[in-house]
């Protein structure tokens, strides 16, 4: 069942940096549009890496925390649950080596269990309502044609398993020191994205 809240995943390993600020501005935008948002800091959730053991290849009707052999042994499902139930889903993430940060990617790899459940036609997954996800990316380098390409493709196919198309991410370059994201233009763009996400979801 869908909740009446938005969830924002803040994906940096650095506390109090640009992604955290972007997540707060997204939440402010959701509030401006009349909604409520929970910010989840991925770094605060201990997620074990996918073992590539094949256990989830045959879900056989299993669901929830039983889908993965690691089961309830870590916090992966604490992050998945809001992804399945939030009315609006947003991400704020830095770029690390042209990609998503490793803690975030470790969690994404654990979603292989959803890929398998979807392939089996699990109705609790295939019948999820279509929700458009939004992302803000922050990168230290001022240039680079493909700076956001890897992160965008991975996020897009991760979300596909949850029936969520990804809108074109809002991407900022030359944002490196923890306080680099302070401009009014950036703030307006990011809160505007949060506002728009909630308005569209309502
Ligand atoms: C491990 C690591 C790898 C990084 N790789 C890149 C990169 O490939 N390209 C880039 O533009 N910035 C890179 N950066 C810089 C971050 O994207 C930048 O500092 C960003 O603002 C960090 O966001 P945060 O404050 O939310 O942690 C990297 C930073 C770290 C810590």
From TrEMBL:
Domain of life the protein comes from: Bacteria
Example GO molecular function: oxidoreductase activity
SUPFAM superfamilies, per database record: Flavoproteins
Domain called NADPH-dependent FMN reductase-like: residue spans: 7-112
Keywords assigned: Flavoprotein, FMN
Protein name: NADPH-dependent FMN reductase
């Amino acid at each position: 069942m869908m909740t009446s809240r938005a969830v924002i995943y803040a994906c940096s390993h650095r506390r109090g940096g640009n992604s955290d600020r972007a997540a707060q501005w997204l939440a402010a935008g959701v509030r401006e549009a009349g909604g409520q948002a929970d910010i989840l800091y991925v770094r605060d959730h201990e997620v074990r890496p996918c073992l590539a053991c094949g256990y989830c290849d045959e879900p056989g009707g299993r669901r929830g925390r039983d889908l993965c052999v690691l089961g309830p042994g870590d916090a992966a499902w604490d992050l998945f649950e809001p992804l399945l139930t939030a009315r609006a889903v947003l991400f704020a993430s830095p770029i690390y080596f042209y990609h998503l940060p490793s803690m975030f990617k470790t969690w994404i790899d654990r979603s292989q269990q959803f890929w398998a459940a979807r392939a089996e036609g699990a109705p609790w997954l295939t019948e999820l309502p279509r929700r458009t996800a939004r992302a803000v990316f922050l990168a230290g380098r001022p240039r680079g044609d493909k700076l956001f390409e890897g992160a965008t493709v991975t996020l897009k196919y991760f979300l596909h398993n949850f029936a969520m198309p990804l809108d074109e991410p809002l991407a900022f370059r030359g944002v490196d020191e923890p306080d680099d994201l302070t401009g009014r233009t950036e703030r307006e763009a990011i809160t505007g994205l949060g506002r728009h996400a909630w308005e569209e979801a309502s």
